[in-house]
Design brief:
- It is a single chain.
- The protein has one domain: Rossmann fold, CATH 3.40.50.150.
- It is about 40% helix and about 20% strand.
- The chain contains 14 helices and 14 strands.
- The strands form three sheets. The chain has an eight-stranded mixed β-sheet with strand order 6-5-4-7-8-14-11-13, sandwiched between helices. Strands 1-2-3-10 form a four-stranded antiparallel β-sheet. Strands 9-12 form a two-stranded antiparallel sheet.
- Strand 5, helix 4 and strand 6 form a beta-alpha-beta unit.
- Helix 2 packs across helix 13 and helix 12 runs antiparallel to helix 13.
- The longest helix has 24 residues.
- About 15% of the residues have low confidence.
- Bound molecules: zinc ion (ZN).
- Zinc ion binds next to loops.
- The site of zinc ion (ZN) has 8 residues, from loops.
């Protein structure tokens, strides 16, 4: 009967830990497994809630700064593709690469011309999947990985960045990932350090009155420790090749080890959540951030595209009307990328410089002070 723990398999051992507000969905409880300590939103979100969170327009939780973010993202993915292409070429001259959670397809678009590999994506957001295909001509399946129903033992390299923490069933999701991989194929998973997510939420909760909740603004549903991730991946049938802890400065801030607020924690009034339904798209109340970065109570922040009024209008039209506003939204993204393109960021030495900066902000696996874990595993 009881829904077992994804990590240790204990049934009925999930105990309530902390109530938080999930924008667009409502108040939810983070639970903690009595067996292994893994923390997760329970009950798991259903298809309707997940669709409310990611299905319509959602394609990137990072761009809370509106359209100004797209150009920077495009160039960041350019850099990542440069180094990833090198890794792929080192493995084999050709192969099949899959990115699960490919968002707007920036990485795939940059990766494809750099390798002899065939690159494909899976993306839950209809807009993201369409944009990637339309603008870059890359093949992206719209839906969850399970819904994509890809053939078994097909892919040589799978990338899942900022994805595992969002799926309703992490173990099932990883089992499906393993099924579509060839024996010996590699999987790279980048996912938050659960403690760096939960600790700021608990700190915020301790300061709030009964009428407000800390906001789970990024929509993370599972919170893993390093040990729990390794156990989960091992249990599903992966061999771990490498673990890194990345984003050390942000991680230390979130953990409270060095001063400075984590930018991830906002506050939501209960009254703003109570009226909300997974399908609700009407306006919400903006809540004063109490010295934190402001997080709005309405679902829009999860749907991204930022704070400019024109962006909001465009998004509402997408929901209401046909494909034309989608074109408009895409055109705005294109224009933003063109307007904010910085030549220095496309300069090869800059790629290496940024990689070095990133390396210096990372630690080897045994330490877990970072904002995220970066794991490389292979199918056993
Ligand atoms: Zn457990």
């Amino acid at each position: 009967m009881a829904d077992p723990c994804d990590v240790c398999g204990a049934a009925g051992g999930m105990r309530p830990l902390l109530e938080v507000g999930l924008p667009g969905v409502g108040p939810v409880w983070i639970h903690r497994c009595g067996g292994c300590g893994m923390r997760q939103v329970r009950p798991r979100l259903g298809a309707a809630a997940l669709d409310a969170l990611y299905g319509a327009d959602y394609f990137d939780s990072q761009s809370a700064h509106g359209f100004a973010g797209y150009a920077r993202q495009r160039q960041r993915y350019d850099r990542e593709a440069f180094f990833l292409a090198r890794e792929l070429r080192g493995l084999a001259p050709t192969g099949r690469f899959l990115e699960v959670g490919s968002a707007l397809g920036f990485l795939l678009a940059s990766l494809e011309p750099r390798t002899g590999w065939e690159v494909e994506g899976v993306e839950l957001s209809a807009f993201g999947a369409w944009y990637a295909g339309d603008r870059f001509g890359v093949r992206v399946y719209r839906g969850t990985l399970e819904e994509a129903g890809l053939p078994a033992a097909t892919f040589d390299y799978v990338l899942q960045k900022d994805l595992l923490e969002h799926v309703a069933h992490p173990r099932r999701h990883l089992e499906e990932t393993r099924r579509i991989m060839r024996p010996g194929a590699r999987l790279r998973v980048i996912t938050p350090n659960g403690e760096a997510d939960v600790r700021p939420l608990r700190r915020a909760a301790a300061e709030l009155g009964p009428d407000a909740l800390p906001s789970l603004g990024q929509g993370h549903l599972s919170f893993f420790s390093r040990e729990q991730l390794l156990r989960l991946l091992g249990g599903v049938g992966f061999r771990v090749l490498r673990v890194r802890s990345i984003g050390i400065r942000r991680g230390l801030r979130a953990l409270g080890t060095i001063p400075g607020r984590s930018s991830r924690t906002g506050v939501i009034r209960r009254s703003a959540l109570a009226a909300r339904r997974p399908s609700g798209a009407t306006g919400g109340e903006r809540v004063a951030p109490r010295g934190r970065e402001e997080v709005a109570a309405e679902p829009e922040p999860l749907l991204t595209s930022g704070s400019s009024p024109s962006a909001v209008t465009g998004r509402e039209e997408v929901a209401a009307a046909g494909p034309e506003p989608r074109e408009e939204q895409a055109a705005r993204i294109d224009a933003e990328i063109a307007a904010h393109h910085r030549r220095v960021r496309a300069w090869r030495p800059y790629f290496h410089y940024r990689r070095l900066v990133k390396r210096l902000d990372a630690l080897p696996g045994a330490l877990a002070y970072g904002q995220d874990f970066d794991l490389l595993v292979e199918k056993r």
